[in-house]
Amino acid sequence: MARGIQLGHYSRPSRKKRPGIHAKTKTSRCKQSKNYVKAYRGQGR
After folding, report:
1. Which contacts (CB < 8 Å, 24+ apart) does range 24-27 have?
2. For 22, 24, 26, 35, which has the most beta carbons within 10 A of its beta carbon?
3. What is the pLDDT of residue 32?
4. How far is it, in rounded angstroms, from Cα 25 to Cα 41?
5. How far is Cα 25 from Cα 38, in angstroms, rounded to an integer?
6. How many beta carbons lie within 10 A of that of residue 28, not counting itself?
7. Helix, strand, coil percentages in the chain from 3-state DSSP, rounded to 5
8. Are the beta carbons of 26 and 34 closer than 8 angstroms?
9. What does the DSSP 8-state code read for residue 31?
10. 1-45: per-residue pLDDT in tens?
11. Distance CA 25, CA 28 (A)
C-alpha cells in the first residue's frame, strides 16, 4: 500500500510578513510615478 500525504496533518505555510515594506509589487497606477506600469500592455491599450 502506497503512502500518501495525510490531509488531516497538512498545514499551509503562513503568509510572509514584510514589516516596513508597504507595497508587495513595484508597480504604480499613478502616471507621474517612477514605478508606473500601464494597465494593459500592447498597441496603445
Report:
1. none
2. 35
3. 93
4. 17
5. 14
6. 13
7. 5, 5, 90
8. no
9. T
10. 566 656 567 777 887 777 877 777 788 888 998 989 888 888 877
11. 9
